[in-house]
Structure formats: structure tokens, C-alpha cells
Amino acid sequence: MKTLTTTALGTLMALGLATAAMADIKIGATVSATGPASFLGDPEAKTLEMLVEELNAAGGINGEKVELVLYDDGGDPNKARTFATRLVEDDEVVAIIGGSTTGTTMSIISVAEDAEVPFISLAGAVEIIEPVKPFTFKTPHTDRMACEKIFEDMQKRGFTKVGMISGTDGFGASMQAQCKSVVGNYGIEIVADETYDPKDADMTAQLTNIKGADGIQAVLNPGFGQGPSIVTRNYKQLAIDLPLYQSHGVASDGFIELAGADAAEGVRLPGTALLIADILPEDDAQKPVVTAYKAAFEAKTGTPVGTFGGYAHDAFLILKDAITRAGSAEPAAIRDAIEATSGLVGTTGVYTMSPENHLGLDLSAFRMLEIKGGKWTIVE
């Protein structure tokens, strides 16, 4: 799928092509708009289309219109690499947004770095930005930060022995490793450690093992996609009377729908301000940004806004801000300006980057949330 305009994304996906007049600033994107990670990529694609359309209607960047070249990699790392190469060599974009998953992101990085074209990832794994790579940035919190936020909450609740059940996909495996690397900092011991394949349809065997672990007080499920919803339903079926934590990889209303509000009741996870836009305090710095994006996205698409579209929103915001400040659409100038981003308020947090930090968020950007009555609430 390729689109060179900012309208009729659904039609363009169906047709597989589109034609448009040349624009002044050409930005590329490859996301997983279809396939198993479409719950990530579809809102990301729609968000980018909407924002480019809005930007051009308002006069563009420094008086220049923006052209979006958008591909759907279907969650396939090989396709993502192919499309990234095409974006650089054939489409001659000045920057790339995308990589809905860690797998597709890692395949794009080498292309972007070799071509010296700025790349802003929409995936979570910490290895995307550690060690720092000159042209690679990202908008979601890292999996390590999610582990830290969760263990911080567990520590406050007095938990010292916990279990983990992790997906074996790229995200789940990475977060499992990161959680193990920091858990000791919080005086917490992992007393049960199980895994599941993302295609598994039942995790009762693993959860039964966890339920029987000596002294266990809570359970954490690093994972994304449908797996965590199945874990949550099985958890309820087994009547496991322990707090259940999920990752930011399922921070959306879709998770509640898939798991079922009854099964998801009481589940906690680290999420973004976007999920609780309506109940944020009026003096919260992110409230104007998240409420504006929520209103625009829902009016445009007729679907609820979510965390993952917010990652694309912030990537585009960072890119627009960088090009504006740089006064140039040259990739090297854009890269330098992104790295100098300071105090930029997005839906995911407030970004301040540096040569040593290509994410620019800290733990304060995460909100600990709990599902109550089928809705997201803030844990005080």
C-alpha cells in the first residue's frame, strides 16, 4: 500500500496505489495498518493522514506543504525493510515515521542509519534507542520504563513476591528481560516465570503453575496483541485472587473489549494521559493536547482514540517542530533539531531529548491506571 495524498486512506489501501502532485516536503511512513498488529498500525496510519491534511490546510511548515508517502508493511519485518529502502531510494523522503512493532522497527533502523535519514519509531523496546543511534528516535515509553512503573506501584502496595507470564513475541520477550533486569531494585522477587506463544488460545496451564507458586502476591503479563486478553480471561476463569498487571502494550479500550469488562476489572497498567483525557485535571500540561487530538481523531474516524495513534501523533509533532525550528528540510538539519527537542508537550508525555537520550520521556509521563467498571481510572 502506498499513498501520496492525505485523503481516503481506506480506499487507497484497497486499491494499493495512489497518485498525487509533488509536494515541497516529503515525509515517509511504514506502519502495520493490516495484519496481526493492525490494532497498532491502523490508528497510526489514520492519525498521520489526518495530521498532514490538517497541517496543509493551515499552510504547511514554514509555508511549504507536506506530502505523506505511506506504506502498509502488515507487521512483516522484511516488508518494512523493503518499504524503508523504497522510501529512501525511490521516494526520497526527508524523514521516516513508523515501525509499529519492535520487529519492523529493528528492520527499518539499519536502512535509516545507512541513508542518514531521521527515523522516529512507534515501538516500545528499549534496544531501539539504547545504545543511541544517530538518526533513530522513538515516541513510546520503553519496556524498561514500564517495568519500573509497575514495580514502583507493586512496592507501594507491599508486594515482594510476584509471578510473570510473558509473550514470546519481540515485545514480550524484550519486556520480560527488562523486568528481570530491574526487579531487584524494588526488593521484589520473581517466584514464577511462564511464557506463551502469541498464537496460543489458552494459557490456563501456565497460570495454574503461577497460582501455585509459594508466597506469590501479584502477577505481571508483559505482552501485546490478543495474548494479554486471553491471559486476563483465563485469570478470571481460574479465580486467581491476586492483583494482575498488564503492560502499556495493551493500553487501549480494545483490550477491555477483548478481555471483557468483568475479567479486566481491577487490572492495572502504566498508560498515557490520552486514555484518561476526560478526567485529567484542568491544570495538567497535557490536557489541551490530548483533548484536541481525541476530538479531532474521533470526529474524523468515528472510532475511539487510543494510545497507539497517540504515538504517531507525537512522532509527527516532533518532526513538524524540528523542521520548523531547523528552517530546513534537509535530513541532517532535521536530525539535529529533533535531538534538540525541549519541553514539547505530546499525548504520551513532555519530550526533552539530547545526544544521550533519543526518547526524551521519564517515568512521570506514565500514569498508573486501573480498570474499574469497564473504564480507565487514575491510581492515586
From TrEMBL:
Return the SUPFAM superfamilies for the record: Periplasmic binding protein-like I (SSF53822)
Task: From the UniProt record, give one GO term of the biological process aspect.
Answer: amino acid transport
UniProt keyword annotation of Signal present: yes
Q: Matching CDD domains, A to Z?
A: PBP1_ABC_RPA1789-like
Pfam families in the record: Peripla_BP_6 (PF13458)
**The keyword Metal-binding belongs to this UniProt entry's keyword annotation:** no
- Domain Leucine-binding protein, residue spans: 25-360
**InterPro entries attached to this UniProt entry:** BCAA_transport, Leu-bd, Leu_Ile_Val-bd, Peripla_BP_I
Q: Which residues form the signal peptide?
A: 1-23
Key words, A-Z? Amino-acid transport, Signal, Transport
Q: Which family does it belong to?
A: Belongs to the leucine-binding protein family.
Name of this protein: ABC transporter substrate-binding protein
Can you name the source organism?
Answer: Gemmobacter lanyuensis
